[in-house]
Amino acid sequence: MNSKSIKVRTVDLTKKFKLNRKETITAVEKMNLEATSGEVLGILGPNGAGKTTALRMISTILQPTSGTAVVEGQDVRENPLKVRQSIGYLATEMGLYGRLTPRETLTFFARINGLEEGLIKSRIEEVFRILDMEEFQGRKVNNLSTGMKQKLSLARSIIHDPSILIFDEPTQGLDLMTSKTVTDYIQDFTRENKTIILSTHIMHVAEKLCDKVAILFDGEVKAFGGMEQLLKRHDEESLESLFFKVAEDGNN
């Protein structure tokens, strides 16, 4: 593949949930997006827009009702295991084990992600160095600060060195300093030519990080494209003003 090959593509990706025997709700409706290597794609929208559902389908956590996503050439419906081998997923819920240390946590996740036993120690040391975690690697997770736990969650998602990283609201609930640290790491990952898909409702985070954005309302993509391209097309100076314009247009 060339350096700008398509790494993730969704094709009419749709998810419906049953409310009861007669009623369903559509969380994501015919989503068509793509992201290339070294690119950050931001999925933007208010709470309940369908962002998390979309990321969970791309990550194989949820099965689409119809349509599909293709990740590194693998269909999420046909080859979910292959897809999981090439992605790292950072969820909003940290889901860390309080009695383990960061070193024990990463050892566990390295093994379940199939790293060879002889490579695990060196890879953990590398991740500790990248994320500046050496100081607290031996503390129990229960004794870590929120920022330390977020670093550990991030470390867990990259331990197997995936080419595609999927982050669901990566700065949610973090203080300004920790949020900046996380966004700086995301920018570092793009320099390694990794593809990043993230969801957020924080416009300045998206403006700082994203090459492309998809704006979602009620499960539908209302705008999608390169950041500069979209601003120019809609004659807007900021992503925030574009976001509200798309919201108003969608409600008319």
Describe this structure in words.
By secondary structure, this protein is of the alpha/beta class. Helix content is 38%, strand content 26%. The protein is built from nine helices and eleven strands. The strands form two sheets. A six-stranded mixed β-sheet has the order 7-8-9-4-10-11, sandwiched between helices. Strands 1, 2, 3, 5 and 6 form a five-stranded antiparallel β-sheet that branches. Strand 8, helix 6 (176-191) and strand 9 (195-200) form a beta-alpha-beta unit. Helix 3 packs across helix 4 (117-130). The radius of gyration is 18 Å and the shape is globular. The N and C termini lie far apart (43 Å).
How large, in whole angstroms, is the Cα Rg?
18 Å
Determine and state the CATH class.
Answer: Alpha Beta
* Major sheet details: 6 strands, mixed
- According to CATH, the fold-level topology is Rossmann fold
Characterize the overall form: globular
Helix content: 25-40%
Q: How far apart are the first and last residues' alpha carbons, in Å?
A: 43 Å
Quick recap of the structure?
The protein has a single domain (6-94, 163-251), classed as 3-Layer(aba) Sandwich (Rossmann fold), CATH 3.40.50.300.
Jot down its keywords:
9 helices, 252 residues, globular, alpha/beta, Rossmann fold, 38% helix
Question: How are the elements arranged and paired?
Answer:
Elements: E1 6-18, E2 24-31, E3 34-36, E4 40-44, H1 51-58, E5 66-71, E6 74-75, H2 80-86, E7 87-90, H3 102-112, H4 117-130, H5 146-158, E8 164-168, H6 176-191, E9 195-200, H7 203-209, E10 212-217, E11 220-226, H8 227-233, H9 239-251
Parallel strand pairs: 4-9, 4-10, 7-8, 8-9
Antiparallel strand pairs: 1-2, 1-3, 1-5, 5-6, 10-11
Helix pairs in contact: 3-4
